[in-house]
Amino acid sequence: MILTRFFMGGFDRRITILIVLLLLLALLVPMLHLLMPPTSFFHVPTFMVALLGKYLTYALLALSLDLVWGYCGILSLGHGAFFALGGYAMGMYLMRQIGSRGSYGNAELPDFMVFLNWKELPWFWYGFDSFAFAMLMVMLVPGLLAFVFGWFAFRSRVTGVYLSIITQAMTYALMLAFFRNNMGFGGNNGLTDFKDILGFNVQAPETRMALFAASAVALCLGILVTSALVNSKYGKLMIGVRDSESRLRFLGYRPESIKLVAFTVSAVMAGVAGALYVPQVGIINPGEFEPGNSIEVVIWTAVGGRGTIVGPVIGALLVNAGKSWFTGVLPEFWLFALGGLFVFVTLFMPKGVVGVWASFKTRWRAKPPAEISQPAEAQT
Length: 380
Known about the structure:
Elements: H1 2-8, H2 13-35, H3 46-69, H4 79-96, H5 111-115, H6 131-155, H7 160-178, E1 191-192, E2 196-197, E3 200-201, H8 205-230, H9 233-250, H10 255-281, E4 283-284, H11 291-304, H12 310-329, H13 334-348, H14 352-365
Antiparallel strand pairs: 1-4, 2-3
Helix pairs in contact: 1-8, 2-8, 3-8, 3-10, 3-11, 3-12, 4-6, 4-10, 6-10, 8-10, 9-10, 11-12, 11-13, 11-14, 12-14
């Protein structure tokens, strides 16, 4: 059904090329890591695999924001909260897989609960020893939060900068809550020291390759879902909400319902990105709720080009690759560089990298008008 929507809604060569490149990357990187000797120039080291996998999860997060910001006009400054909630759901599953191999040897309670003198497992941890249940929570918890939040916000007709502020307040409130030890999520230290996922050692090279490939495939699925939505009749309504919400309301539609669906789907995508992020980096803590992280997602999307599907993916990869290099050379100046980049893009590249490239191709392919020569009239 998604593929049918994708092709019937309009064939976009850029999206097809991106999906093919991602699938090739999902095959090529594991092969170069596992088959090439470490001394080979073509060998991809373990740390690079984890880094690239993290970039792909960030790209999926940026894509989820593009769905609501680029196509529905909702500038969310709280998408990091959905990302972190999906990560915590995965982290809880991974903690339950440790069993008696923890530092305190308690097969029922995670180490931080033993340290804090908890006597029994909290009720909201039940079921997380099952991978299927954990994956359900990865999608359900962010989606439910987005649905409840959006239900009240959109029906109250909160829009523009006011909506952006309360989304930022939401993620900040969650950050403060998760920092508390009595919440049962590890407090300041979060969840870490993971051992297994689906019975496989999470540190094993084969497992890391599988996680990387899963991130690439999830990003491809996210691209297909987003493309199917925006190319459908519902997608036209989303664009109508973005361009003129009042006009759409006068035509008899309910913009709050349109925005609510997009916001919920976007949150689910962000939760999946967070779930794939955690086993690759090995930790999840309240710092992921930091409002600055959500603002960075906005910058990735703006740099790549919002409302393009391809742009946020490119922006997330470019900005995070630049961050890895910049923080290694001049770490104290990274935030200044990031802020300057956002200002530059806002002023001089409002359509992002993809928009600039499209404009360049249009000018390059443009041909001068043909000269029309009129026959000279016979003089008598």
